[in-house]
Amino acid sequence: MSQIELQQVSFSYHDGPRVLDDVTLSIAAGERVAIMGPNGAGKSTLFQMLNGLLRPDGGQVRVGGMAVAGEQVNAVRRLVGMVFQDADDQLFNATVQREVAYGLVNMQMPADEREERVRWALDLVGMTRFIDKTPFNLSGGEKKRIALASVLAMRPAILVLDEPTNALDPKGASNLVSLLNDINRDLGITLVFSTHDVDIVPLLADRVVLMHQGR
Prior knowledge:
- Helix 3 crosses helix 4 (111-124) and helix 4 (111-124) crosses helix 5.
- Helices cover 34% and strands 25% of the residues.
- It is of the alpha/beta class.
């Protein structure tokens, strides 16, 4: 059974040209899928369809068997964790602890359970010792891990990552690829990511979807 299903999805911004044009795509639970293509191919728009940030003009998007529409959007968003290309766009709290706990606070999770979840997520990404630090003084690779921890704390079934190794040096990129593979293997989380870094694709993807002009 497909965990993510797009059926003949089309989308345009403000009556402009189609950014997505009759896209049909299925992704199974636990898969690692790279979405590749030039800038403007529609990758980021497709990603925003997966948790209801954008709604298709035509066709249907389903995640976890639910249509990404109406009252089901909130339930879908609990399944899909988004990690942005630039971690600075995602981090805004004064400490790492508060950053990772932010989504859990909004879920009104009890404080003791929330603290346990924060430490679990930070331990998973190897960043527990930074719990009281401000995220803004960390390196690019460390910020990526904190952004990832803040998403993992929500226990998503799917991780959607926009250019996960962007701006990382080779060692940082290699470490992140290993971490993401561990998350996929140990937690069974589906990975969907875009990248221009062709070197990481055979290390992190079971399958490549190539996009061009919204198709």
